[in-house]
Design goal:
Layout: H1 9-23, H2 26-43, E1 47-51, E2 59-63, E3 66-76, E4 82-85, E5 98-105, E6 113-117, H3 119-127, H4 134-140, E7 146-149, H5 150-154, H6 180-183, H7 187-190, H8 192-210, H9 213-217, H10 227-233, H11 241-246, H12 251-260, H13 262-269, E8 272-277, E9 284-291, E10 303-305, E11 315-318, E12 324-326, E13 341-342, E14 355-357, E15 369-375
Parallel strand pairs: 3-5
Antiparallel strand pairs: 1-2, 1-8, 2-3, 4-7, 5-6, 8-9, 9-15, 10-14, 11-12, 11-13
Helix pairs in contact: 1-2
The chain binds zinc ion (ZN) (3 copies).
One zinc ion (ZN) is lined by residues 291, 293-294, 296, 361, 363-364, 366.
Amino acid sequence: MKRKMGKNEFERIKDIIAPILSNGDSRTRGKVGEYLSGIEFLKNKWEVYEPIQDAYVDFILKSGNKFRIIQVKTSKLDVDKKFKVNHDPKDILHDPRHFFVWFFFDQFQKDGKFIVTTPKEFCDYLMSGRRHGVIVDTWRKDQSREEIKLIDIESEKGEFRDNVNNWSILSKENENVSLVGIQEKEEKWKDDKKFLKQWKKNKKILKEKLADKNLQEDHVEIIDGKTRVRKRINGIKIKNEVLKNKMSLTRKKSMKYLQKGTIYGFYKYQGMNIFENIEKPSQFLKLKIECKKCNELWEADEKECYECKIWRPPVVVCKACKKINKEEAQECWSCKQRISKICIGCNKGIESKNTVPLTYCIMCGSRNNKFNISKVVLSELITPKS
Ligand SMILES: [Zn+2]
Ligand SMILES: [Zn+2]
Ligand SMILES: [Zn+2]
């Protein structure tokens, strides 16, 4: 079956875009990729929402009650005919409405292509046999960018051949499969029961160690910035404290604050991001990544130990006396020895290669997440004074 492919926006305006692609830095190029993708979404009859400040995802698309969450990556063809995409393990979210758009262009700033794909297809590509699992392991540890070969896009049997400029992929909900396995090399971490057992053990260790008297009294500032996460380790749910303060604002004031980003600040506090309709400003959506099981905020920016799965609090443990120190400490406050940093859970050395993005819910240990998307109701913020 032949697919109809009209000219994409890049082909139409490449005389304008090409100089920007060749002269711009990677951030500018990324913006071009997002801009061009945005136009394609509009052409394909989606309502397009973009974040009002930098957010984890680039777009929310809406059509009736249907939503799509999009991450866009832009890449230039290398001399060895490869494109690089930098999806981290934490980009592999488990909601069937999650999609990737890759915008590729060649060294002559020509032949711009969009690849519309799913996290599942990307994972299948990572796992494909010819890679011998080698690249996958560095990817799991967040140390490599993935390479997509031109041949995988252009050849008859190329894995992404059918994804080129194929915007119809977005209309289908993709397969709702668990992609947790891709994040782990060892079988034991792929087993839910074994994982949960370790999670409970880790939680006990954290509770005990972070409740350490010395940490509380002498080093109280150590994990101040992480109060929220520390509370959650102890099972305390986060309330809408900020919401209460804003409830008494007048409409006029709220609109002023809205422009200043209070609305963003308010939701950001609750781990949400605000997106605005690019055609109809002042229509907003909010997005929260949450645990599929307990619906609590998914801590996408937190890290874990690759070896023992414990949450990495911003403290270091002294190898000699096992006491907890400030993250930046050079000498142990207790035994005065030079600190050789070890993991709070497994006592293995802390090196960047052992620290990876969190792969579980900090509240319940579930390994699956989903999107929570809803309209921002301004009356949540505005309560006219009676
Ligand atoms: Zn010590
Ligand atoms: Zn560890
Ligand atoms: Zn949970």
